[in-house]
Write a structure and sequence with these properties.
By secondary structure, this protein is mainly beta. The protein has two domains: 33 residues, no CATH class; 54 residues, no CATH class. The chain is 7% helix and 24% strand. The chain contains one helix and four strands. A two-stranded antiparallel sheet has the order 1-2. A hairpin with a 5-residue loop joins strand 3 and strand 4. The longest helix is centred in the first third of the chain and has 6 residues. This is Ubiquitin-activating enzyme E1 FCCH domain-containing protein.
């Protein structure tokens, strides 16, 4: 069924319930799509002011950063800490 939907460019969603357990599978096809964070907001970008040897990151500016515990971040264009780029 999924292959038929994929060939015809149709989004496929399958859900099963087994007592107290369930599962869900979603195939949006081969076309690229945008991933949003858990709050439905688009991904954020901030400028880094400093990274301590302990790994504490300080962002530039007076505003609070938009990140929450458990968020995944990507470093790029770091100068002096190139080994962290793309991590």
């Amino acid at each position: 069924m999924n292959e038929l939907c994929r060939v015809n460019n149709i989004i496929f969603i399958m859900a099963d319930v087994y007592g107290v357990f369930s599962r869900c599978f979603v195939d949006c096809g081969q076309d690229p799509f945008t991933v949003y964070d858990k709050d439905g907001e688009q991904l954020k970008e901030v400028f880094i002011n400093h990274v301590s040897p302990e790994g504490i990151v300080t962002v530039a500016g007076d505003e609070r950063h938009p990140f929450q515990d458990g968020d995944i971040v990507l470093f790029r264009e770091l100068v002096g800490l190139e080994h962290l780029n793309q991590c």
